[in-house]
Amino acid sequence: MKKRLIGSYLLFLILLTVFSMIWMLISSKLILLEINRSPESPLSREFIERVANQTKVINGQLTVNPAILRYLKDKRVWIQILDENGTEIFSQDRPAKMPTHYIPGQLVSYQRYGQELIGYRISTWYKQVDSRTFTWVLGRDKKLEVNDKESPEFETRFMIFNLIGWIFLVFLVAVLFSIWLGNPLFYIWKWLQRLSQGIYTEPVGRTGRPISLNRSGRMKRSFQTYREVIGALQRLTQTLKQNEIERAKLEKTREEWLTGVSHDLKTPLSTIKGYIDILAAKKYQLNEAELDQILETVSQRIGYIEELLADFTLTFQLKNNALPLHREKENIVELVRESVIELVNHPEADAYDIQFEPMVDEVIDCVDKKWYKRAIDNLLGNAFLHNPKGTRVVVTIDQWEKGYEIVIADNGKGMDEETKARLFERYFRGTHSGSEIQGSGLGMAIAYQLIGIHDGKIRLQSALGQGTVIRIHFSKSHDGIPDVETGMDQIESQGK
């Protein structure tokens, strides 16, 4: 863009130079035309004819109007009048080097080349007066003739004429320059102003087409100087527009999440409050077994609330990269086996077919056992909790030279496109608040982030009615320092 801006300035400088040269030529021609045509010019055709008309023969003597002679003296013009033979019969202020008799052709040479030959510009005229033919010769020093510098009136007219011309020329170039470079800048300013007002669209004209484009849909030539800026603004506009859509979606999801979490907290708190009221009431006589049952229920509800609060804390630690990791070498096969065994021992697991089929006996990696296992537990729990009874869940693990992969596959109900796209977002709840299985809506987001800080990547495959496959890939080449890729771009979602 820098080169194009410099090129534009050079182009207008060249145009200004060309226009100036043209104006100089035009003004010179006009001035010369004015000199030659003006009756004030003492060597003009009109003036020498007037001199001849003001010449009379009185008593055999030639006389010239005294006013004409005074004017010629003021203009420093000399005069000769010749008879039929070319002999001078009258003169005023004739230079000494000028002849008093001219041979045929001499006057013609002087008139055409007088400035070079004798240093004077010559003008001639002939006319018959009282049956005699006379020739009038007017001459002037070439240094005084061309622009008639001794005329203040002419100088004033010349300066005014050139000043007006230059002002018009500068104004014309300024208008062209402002249209060429100013219009795109005003367009960019207007676009930025719209963005600051939350209007994430490119300014358009009356036809509904962006102002920067012509009828064929191509960028106008004057806007091409700033095409990088315009391209950046287009990308910025699209990004801000998409961010606004995502923000509105996140806000809606947050409100739904708060409603669900409020319900999830209210339910155990109501239970705890009810039992406390029973214990506080003197009219109830409770035996030891009833007291044990009440205390166990209250303990379970308090544990649920503590887990919910722990999820909140963990989520914000992960978001702010504030979760400390204590990496040690672990056998990943055994860690996954522990998670599968815990899932099988769940009270409702008898209704599901849960299998663990490792392809190898040992996979060693440097991980934080607590948080690594938490991520696997959350992913396994999702396959278990959100599928109908009778669903088959198969967990496999395999390794190769550069890494290893954990696969959690089920033949359950699968997911629609929206669920796949938002599965690992915070606040997205896989169940509604009225279901038997309660949760914070943070489990999959936590699993996603924990896999990330262990340098893992998740690939999701699912389709409605065809089950779900979650592939967790880890590279064994890392040295224990997290190399986290953040954002939903880690997840590749595609239907089977």
Question: Would you kindly provide a written description of the structure presented here, covering whatever features stand out?
Answer:
The protein is α+β, with helices and mostly antiparallel strands and 496 residues long. The chain folds into three domains: 41-150, Beta-Lactamase; 247-316; 324-494, Histidine kinase-like ATPase, C-terminal domain (Heat Shock Protein 90). The chain has twelve helices and 14 strands. The chain has helices at 2-37, 45-53, 66-74, 106-117, 142-145, 152-196, 227-280, 288-319, 332-344, 369-385, 417-422, 443-453; strands spanning 55-58, 61-64, 77-82, 88-92, 120-129, 132-141, 328-331, 353-358, 364-367, 392-400, 403-410, 456-462, 468-475, 492-494. A six-stranded mixed sheet has the order 8-10-11-13-12-14, with helices on one face. A four-stranded antiparallel sheet has the order 4-3-6-5, sandwiched between helices. Strand 10 and strand 11 form a beta hairpin. The longest helix is centred in the middle third of the chain and has 54 residues, at 227-280. The protein is rod-shaped, with a radius of gyration of 52 Å. The model is unreliable at 431-437 and 477-496 (pLDDT under 50).
Task: Please specify the SSE layout and strand pairing.
Elements: H1 2-37, H2 45-53, E1 55-58, E2 61-64, H3 66-74, E3 77-82, E4 88-92, H4 106-117, E5 120-129, E6 132-141, H5 142-145, H6 152-196, H7 227-280, H8 288-319, E7 328-331, H9 332-344, E8 353-358, E9 364-367, H10 369-385, E10 392-400, E11 403-410, H11 417-422, H12 443-453, E12 456-462, E13 468-475, E14 492-494
Parallel strand pairs: 8-10, 12-14
Antiparallel strand pairs: 1-2, 3-4, 3-6, 5-6, 7-9, 10-11, 11-13, 12-13
Helix pairs in contact: 1-6, 6-7, 7-8, 8-12, 9-10, 10-12
